[in-house]
């Protein structure tokens, strides 16, 4: 049985350890660095199977293999954007006490589900031992801390509110730049529809409509009102939400129904292939666009595609963070801890993120590696005047139940197009979330 001290004590422990005054000998035989545990293998569970994301994972895996030659790496990734399939498989594995050695989970409310269910171990000692408290931004540490304990290792920061667009199609439609507000967006979509034979806004699997919804809510309500939606007792039956949902309905009229079976990749690709004018997707799309062929699309920023904050969200970073966990009863706990070391390292993050289309979660990444869109993303994330909003679809502000209930309401809306019912569904989802 390992006893973990609360975080404030660990900080002291870390400071003392750094002076060398406390060699780990006093703590027993490396009780929590995993060296007493099985390190022969590690099974890493994620949903990164597509170009860009899978390449980033591979790069980190190769570095891990160099540093841990005796550990067999099993990539247990399950396809399905935003974890739609993976999360269901994970839930059943955790329930049956058959956890992978480490799994991907979003920082924030999603992680709290696993913590409250007692499915993952706290990582206080891991953070102290590896001097990690000072290398992550405070607001990120807050999202992975529960009751004074820290629970996961963030590898990146993604931005959800990005509008990707095809400059040639905008020109053909007589649109002189990316729309700045939701109203302008609707006008631009109409212009593409009227003046070209292209798809105004590409959409993929159902979850991409949820992703669009969070962007429309943020763009229409503004940052403070959007953030307030996720506070306890939040009010969803306001005229402002009704207006935003009507706008969502209008925007949805300009999307591709036939693309509903493709995932985010198909929808994003339509923009760079010159088939659709706009796509709203997280910046993992960037890794896919610019990644080298044959895995990536090998496209060029500014020629094949451009980006802007999604309409009405300039000045706000709607963020999310992929992090890795240490499940309770991980079969190869030593392998898991070695993996978490890789994930937390500057080297690992700088190998992973340029390919993934994200920026490092650590504050000391090598800036020269982040070029094109990623340079802009890093500048915005670290800018003192940026406002933050948490992505609900990608686990920051809503727990798994809330997330699923919103998805159900959106799924019904896709069938019945009834804004009143959608709003009622969202009101109920908030009420019943138990968050
Ligand atoms: C998000 C995840 C990203 C990316 C995306 C598309 O939920 O945080 O890393 O994988 O889904 O699958």
Note down, in words, how this protein is organized.
This protein is an alpha/beta fold and 435 residues long. It folds into two domains: 7-157 and 320-390, D-Maltodextrin-Binding Protein, domain 2 (3-Layer(aba) Sandwich), CATH 3.40.190; 162-318 and 391-431, D-Maltodextrin-Binding Protein, domain 2 (3-Layer(aba) Sandwich), CATH 3.40.190. It has 18 helices and 15 strands. A five-stranded mixed beta sheet has the order 2-1-3-13-6. Strand 4 and strand 5 (149-150) form a beta hairpin. Helix 2 (53-67) runs antiparallel to helix 15 and helix 17 packs antiparallel against helix 18 (419-431). The structure holds beta-D-galactopyranose (GAL). Residues 47-48, 53, 81-83, 158, 264, 282, 284, 320, 322, 394 line the site of beta-D-galactopyranose.
Describe the protein's topology:
Blueprint: H1 7-19, E1 41-45, H2 53-67, E2 72-75, H3 86-95, E3 102-106, H4 109-116, H5 124-129, H6 138-143, E4 145-146, E5 149-150, E6 153-154, E7 156-159, E8 162-165, H7 167-172, H8 182-195, E9 199-201, H9 206-221, H10 223-228, H11 239-252, H12 264-272, E10 276-280, H13 284-290, E11 306-309, E12 316-320, E13 322-324, H14 333-344, H15 346-356, E14 359-360, H16 373-381, E15 387-390, H17 400-416, H18 419-431
Parallel strand pairs: 1-2, 1-3, 9-10, 12-15
Antiparallel strand pairs: 3-13, 4-5, 6-13, 7-12, 7-14, 8-10, 8-11
Helix pairs in contact: 2-15, 9-11, 9-17, 11-18, 17-18
């Amino acid at each position: 049985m390992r006893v973990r001290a609360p975080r404030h004590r660990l900080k002291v422990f870390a400071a003392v350890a750094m002076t060398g005054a406390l060699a780990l000998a006093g703590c027993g035989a490396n009780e929590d660095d995993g060296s007493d545990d099985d390190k022969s293998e590690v099974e890493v569970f994620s949903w990164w199977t597509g170009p860009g994301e899978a390449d980033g994972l591979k790069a980190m895996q190769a570095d891990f293999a160099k540093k841990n030659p005796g550990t067999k790496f099993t990539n247990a990734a399950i396809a399905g954007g935003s974890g739609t399939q993976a999360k269901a498989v994970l839930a059943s594995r955790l329930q049956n006490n058959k956890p992978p050695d480490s799994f991907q989970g979003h920082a924030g409310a999603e992680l709290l589900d696993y913590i409250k269910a007692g499915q993952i171990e706290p990582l206080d000692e891991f953070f102290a031992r590896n001097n990690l408290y000072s290398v992550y931004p405070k607001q990120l540490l807050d999202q992975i801390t529960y009751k004074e304990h820290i629970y996961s290792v963030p590898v990146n920061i993604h931005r959800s509110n990005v509008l990707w667009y095809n400059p040639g199609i905008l020109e053909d439609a007589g649109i002189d730049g990316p729309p700045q507000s939701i109203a302008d967006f609707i006008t631009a979509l109409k212009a593409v529809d009227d003046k070209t034979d292209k798809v105004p806004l590409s959409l993929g699997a159902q979850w991409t409509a949820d992703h669009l919804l969070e962007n429309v809510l943020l763009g229409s309500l503004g940052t403070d009102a959007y953030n307030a939606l996720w506070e306890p007792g939040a009010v969803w039956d306001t005229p402002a939400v009704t207006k935003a949902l009507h706008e969502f309905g209008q925007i949805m009229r300009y999307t591709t129904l036939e693309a509903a079976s493709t995932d985010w990749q198909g929808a994003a690709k339509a923009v760079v292939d010159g088939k659709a004018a706009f796509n709203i997707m997280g910046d993992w799309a960037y890794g896919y666009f610019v990644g080298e062929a044959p895995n990536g699309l090998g496209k060029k920023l500014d020629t094949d595609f451009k980006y802007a904050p999604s309409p009405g969200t300039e000045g706000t970073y709607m963020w999310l963070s992929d992090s890795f966990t240490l499940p309770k009863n991980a079969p190869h706990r030593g392998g898991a801890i070695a993996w978490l070391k890789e994930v937390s390292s500057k080297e690992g993050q700088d190998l992973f993120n340029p390919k993934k289309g994200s920026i490092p979660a650590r504050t000391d990444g090598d800036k020269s590696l982040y070029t094109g869109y990623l340079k802009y993303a890093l500048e915005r994330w670290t800018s003192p005047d940026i406002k933050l909003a948490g992505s609900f679809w990608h686990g920051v502000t809503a727990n798994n139940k809330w997330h699923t209930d919103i998805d159900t309401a959106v799924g019904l809306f896709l069938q019945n197009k009834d804004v009143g019912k959608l709003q009622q569904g969202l009101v109920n989802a908030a009420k019943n979330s138990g968050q």
